[in-house]
Amino acid sequence: MFEKTQTPGFQRPPSKDSILKQADGLRDLARRARRLAEQMSMESDQRRLARYVEELEESASRLEKSAVEAKAG
Known about the structure:
The protein is mainly α.
């Protein structure tokens, strides 16, 4: 009968599962970038992709740490 309305600007915090899915997606991108770097002929491109892989891995690690604090669901 009564619909629940959310107040503007209020968002439910992300669930543990959704955070872990994001981390998995970042790790997948890191794997792809690592494989692509192996195929690059220019060393500068390889270095750039290696930095990108590091950033993706660091972001995934941060997400996994925040998932520990998140609610399950």
